[in-house]
Amino acid sequence: MKKYIAEFIGTAVLVIFGCGSAVAANTLVANNGAEIPLAMSTLLIAFAFGLSIVAMAYSIGNVSGCHINPAVSIGMLVAGRMNVKDFVGYVVAQCLGAIAGAGILVVFFGSNAALGTNGYGEASALGTGAGTAFLVEVVLTFVFVLLILGVTSKTENTAVVGLVIGLTLTLIHILGIPFTGTSVNPARSLGPALVGGGLALSQVWLFILAPLVGGAVAAIVHKYVLDGK
Questions:
Q1: Among the four 58, 79, 137, 148, which has the fewest Cβ within 10 Å?
Q2: Cα–Cα distance for residue pair 166/144, rounded to 1 Å
Q3: Is the pLDDT of residue 41 over 90?
Q4: Can you give the pLDDT at residue 19?
Q5: Which Gene3D superfamilies match (predicted)?
């Protein structure tokens, strides 16, 4: 049970600080009537997500492994590092944590109008179509989960795992934010979409399916192509 609670807390923290930073940055800009380059806001949000992972990796990593992402969990399942029971428990905990995190953001900002949701088409900064958005999310999640499977496969990497994963997530957000807002995490997308509703909820299917596909493919590649065992 402790590992499920850890996953709940970790995912809630990711949503609060990652999505919350996105909302805060956009709210400050709107309220002050200021203009901020997309590149600058992208960096701020990317580091918020990356640093959230670093913080949680060193807080709950020894309890649950700090997946806080169903795409990571499905990668671990396919790679044979996780059983089905734990996979289901982790995903349920992650989704509930993301919903709780989104709910806390509503309290913080007094509105559910903007919760750092993901989107394509009119909800994308670049107007990315659904097909391209799907491909972007699959590729970015593939890279992220492949990195996680690789870096966690050697015990000598234990001390730096959290930092490496967090920096990689930052890198992934730098590229992905203009296209889709960057999901690579079905729970992180589902929580804000459920609480916010509207267009984000109608599009959330893509941000559930694409990361799961990317995570599963990464596990297959790691297990059958890259793993030297």
A1: 58
A2: 10
A3: no
A4: 94
A5: Glycerol uptake facilitator protein (1.20.1080.10)
1 HSE (CA, 13 A, CB side): 0
pLDDT of residue 70: 98
Token pair, residue 193, equals: 């979409």
Q: Rounded CA gap, 65 and 77, in Å?
A: 13
Domains observed in the chain: 2-226 (1.20.1080.10)
Residue 37: other Cβ atoms inside 10 A = 8
Helix axes 20-32, 38-64, angle to 10 degrees: 160
CA distances from 32 to 25, 28, 90 (A): 11, 6, 41
**How high is the mean pLDDT of the chain?**
91
Please give the residue that has the higher pLDDT: either 82 or 226: 82
